[in-house]
Design brief:
CATH architecture of the largest domain: 3-Layer(aba) Sandwich
Bound molecules: flavin-adenine dinucleotide, NADP nicotinamide-adenine-dinucleotide phosphate
Order of helices and strands: HEEEEEHEEHHEHHEHHEHE
Number of domains: 2
Number of strands: 11
Largest sheet: 6 strands, antiparallel
Strand order of the largest sheet: 4-3-6-1-2-5
Oligomer: single chain
Radius of gyration: 21 Å
CATH superfamily of the largest domain: Nucleotide-binding domain of ferredoxin-NADP reductase (FNR) module
Length: 277
């Protein structure tokens, strides 16, 4: 291209990003995990624990040049009252979205469809005394939201987060968040000592080990925390992990006499996939 044509050629129209949300913070936790915050659209209302569709524009089609949004479901990891929206994400090296999303920087824009939905909400379970949050991997994201939700501590006497990852570094996001909740002046007033944290690893040495499922079946978690086993009269559960985990833990909860509920029919526990295998 000559200088002459560059001056006379009309600039190509850059399409404005639909539902754009500006990135305000990015933290990389491991080579597979990162979290980021975006400005919250003023009109977005959601219940802590819900998910939205977020994404980026895909690459231009080689022939038509048309770009399509590449959207995926993401739990909102921040609580409903927060001014910003936080997300906690996997980095799948050949994943259509996260191979790109992992490179976002402060000031970039993502696409955020402001239609929150989901079953991991307090409305979908019956009142009770103890609320269990069972998570593997990035399945902690909806609980990062719920752990900072005042209503959770108003409704339950005890809130127990069981989070299992393969390696210690993958627990760090949750560990730091719990530490922050317990030390922050405002959040500790919301939590009032009710939050109990039970992190475990399965493939790297750690002071507490084992799958969530195994620690429930063996009763180890009840012994370690010095509490009674799960009882349908008092205990409620929320589950978020891979498909096999969700299936296995549902069997265990059913065995304890708990029933799966939904927004339309609250019962003793609710389940959501952390990702589609
Ligand atoms: C209801 C719901 C909520 C979700 N919330 C989150 C969230 O908060 N954070 C998040 O990182 N992802 C979440 N996901 C998964 C997310 O939608 C995408 O699958 C993920 O961002 C990867 O996108 P991708 O296009 O790069 O790869 P995809 O083509 O979507 O996935 C490729 C493969 O990567 C693996 N994979 C995908 N997501 C994960 C994950 N989270 N952890 C481990 N392995 C995974 C699976 O084997 C999958 O088949 C959620 C999914 C659902 C259904
Ligand atoms: N995490 C990594 O270091 C790593 C690295 C490269 C690629 N990957 C790939 O990324 C994908 C997701 O890996 P991930 O580690 O994020 O998630 P994941 O495979 O769902 O494992 C997360 C945690 O959940 C446990 N778990 C898995 N299935 C379970 C079940 N049915 N019941 C109870 N607990 C269960 C795992 O224990 P177990 O360890 O006992 O399975 C692990 O501690 C996988 O396809 C994996 O091959 C992971």
């Amino acid at each position: 291209m000559t200088e002459q044509t560059a001056v006379t050629e009309k600039p190509k129209a850059v399409p404005a990003l639909p539902n754009a949300a500006k990135v305000t913070e990015v933290t990389h936790w491991t080579d597979r995990l990162f979290s980021f915050k975006v400005e919250r659209p003023q009109t977005l209302r959601f219940r802590s624990g819900e998910f939205v569709m977020i994404g980026l524009m895909g690459d231009a089609h080689p022939e038509t040049g048309v770009q399509k949004p590449l959207m995926r479901a993401y739990s909102i990891a921040s609580p409903s009252w927060d001014e910003e929206l936080e997300f906690y994400s996997i980095k799948v090296q050949d994943g259509p979205l996260t191979s790109k999303l992992q490179h976002i920087k402060v000031g970039d824009e993502i696409i955020l469809r402001p239609k929150p939905v989901g079953t991991l909400v307090t409305d979908a379970i019956l009142p009770g005394k103890r609320l269990w949050m069972f998570a593997t991997g990035t399945g902690i994201a909806p609980f990062a939201s719920l752990m900072r939700e005042p209503e959770v501590y108003e409704k339950y006497d005890e809130v127990i987060l069981m989070h299992t990852c393969r390696e210690v570094g993958e627990l760090e996001y949750g560990r730091k968040l719990v530490e922050h909740i317990k030390s922050d002046e405002m959040l500790s007033e919301i939590e009032v000592g009710k939050l109990r944290y039970y992190p475990t690893t399965t493939r790297e040495e750690f002071h507490q080990m084992g799958r969530v499922t195994d620690n429930l079946i063996s009763g180890k978690v009840f012994e370690d925390l010095g509490i009674d086993p799960i009882n349908p009269e008092t205990d409620r559960g929320m589950v978020c992990g891979n498909l096999a985990f969700n299936k296995d833990i549902m069997e265990i909860l059913d065995g304890f006499g708990l029933r799966e509920g939904a927004n339309s029919e609250p019962k003793e526990y609710v389940v959501e996939k952390a990702f589609v295998d």
